[in-house]
Amino acid sequence: MKENKKIFQNILLYVILATAFISCDEDFSSVGSGIIGEDNFDTNSQSYSVIAHNQSTGKLRSNSIPLYLLGHYNESTFGSSSASIIGQMQPSDNSYNPIFGDDVVIESVYLNIPYFATALEQDDDGNTTYELDSVLGNESIKLEVYKNEYYLRNFDPNSEFDEALQYYSNQTASDGSMITLPSEGSSLLLYSNDNFEPSAEEIIITEEDEDGEEEITARLTPAIRIPLLYNSDADDDDFNTTISENFWEDLFISKEGEPELSNANNFLNYFRGLYIKASASSTNINGSMATLNLSSASLTITYTNNFDEEDTDNDDILNFADADADGDGVIENGPDTDNDGIKDDYDASITGGTDEDNDGVIDNLPIGDGTFTLNFTGNVVNLIDNNFISFPVGNDVDGDERLYLKGGPDGNIAILNLFNGDEEGNSTELDDFKSKNWLINEANLVFYVDQALLNENGSEPDRLHIFDLEKNTTLIDYQFDGSVDADSGYQKIKHSVPLTRVDDEQSGEGIKYKIRITEHINNIFLRDSTNVKLGLAVTSNINSTENLNVKDFDESDLGDLPESITSGIFLSSKGTILYGNNIIDETKKVKLEIFYTEPN
């Protein structure tokens, strides 16, 4: 039977291939129509069983991920979530052993984390209007920044330092340790604002020119821009801090030339980074949640200094670099290891620094003013504190009435068992399907939204992500799909079709999702591929497929907890509720639709 089936399909393939592919993005009413004479072939469809049940994801690995969440977001259907960040920082461009100069005065300290934003238009004065792309909600949150005192190790000390340490969303590590965070009201508090709101405004940096007029020195895209310099005149409604007035001078400036700033290991152990804490504001509960790329974030200290540029002893070495500035034969400004008269800190031959003018003194010294910039590198961890509803315990035998899909750690996915297969994927229903003499034109999974259980302020995901539960990989249909929607920019829209909404409006209530798995079903039908269980989840981005380990996964456990889920699921703050298979209403039941052609 199988050999005859393949012969029939090979003949038929040449007749209908072009039209079948062209029509693959349309409903079945047009699939195969007008292609083959009615006397020889029939086109039809049949639905097959899908046993679908709920599965909690639990805690997830949350360090060294592509993007990070920051904020507090409350959604009345599923509950609230707070996302904070703790991370190591190092000097940009590995600029260790910084030279700050004499009489340093710090002018400003800013933490700057850009939003994802789209430029809409620019006026005649060069001012740009932006729209934020990756912020869910628009209400204020409480935002705090602390100096981190916990050392985020790279390796597990119990594994002979050959296994990278993993940090999880619930503040724990793979070696069983727990991240210690600064307490409320700690002296490490650098910034606190109970009403921090996301803003799409362009950030314009100005300074006074020689005439006292303000001039624009820089334009920045919208960002979380936080002032961290002690300011006794700061309005308490703006931000609070408990740090000392000389905090940054004591932390960095006073350490010039000391071992603490000399290399990466010393620096990471000395300054252990920042803890950025987000929680609910006292003025509202809904808040906002931002998705951020920390690779473009920075902590920048700007300062002025005073280099003595006189040459008191007329030896062609300026006083600031002269080991014996007054020429009395006593080294009072040293040391001068190579006895060339130049202080070691500024000596190009000692430091290995550039000396293009061949005066022996390193170039590019911050004479007059300078900046010291740090970036998030090393271990950066997303800490997630959820207060979700209790998701139903899944019925893996009969399936569930409703499927609760919620992104993030402690979220929920659905497990799909096509053709009501056993643990190996086999069933009489699958055997019957494989016995057919069909050419499969299209295969779709269709899920209907239960709007009665979704509250009004919910935010439905535009698309769903499906994956091979055993291998934690995308399906072949995902890999083959190169489609892009010109309006939304969504990719792979033939595989993961955007949510059908009421009146086709972006703000309309969701009706149904459709996921095409034609090639996946063909592999089962023609090539005897295993009918594996599938995972179904919400996603922030269909292209975010990096796997993040599930903390409580156990290989010996026979349940359906996946070993890992994708970063797109982790980063999604959205959720939806779908009808499952264990319901009476056949029109709402999840189903596998297969459209096919067969000979009369």
Notes on the protein architecture:
There is one protein chain. This protein has 600 residues and is mainly beta. It folds into 2 domains: 2-60 and 390-599, no CATH class; 79-98 and 111-300 and 377-382, no CATH class. The protein has 8 helices and 29 strands. The strands form 7 sheets. Strands 3, 4, 5, 8, 9, 10, 13, 14, 15, 16 and 17 form an 11-stranded antiparallel sheet that branches. Strands 1-29-20-24-23 form a 5-stranded antiparallel sheet. Strands 2-19-25-21-22 form a 5-stranded antiparallel sheet. Strand 21 (464-468) and strand 22 form a beta hairpin. It is elongated, with a radius of gyration of 31 Å.
* Biggest beta-sheet profile: 11 strands, antiparallel
Radius of gyration: 31 Å
User: First CA to last CA: what distance?
Assistant: 16 Å
Number of helical runs? 8
Integer count of domains? 2
Strand content: 25-35%
Overall morphology: elongated
The count of β-strands is: 29
Query: Would you identify the regions where 5 or more consecutive residues have pLDDT less than 50?
Result: 11-37
Mean pLDDT: 88
Into which percent range does the helicity of residues fall? Answer: 10-25%
**Overall SS class:** mainly beta
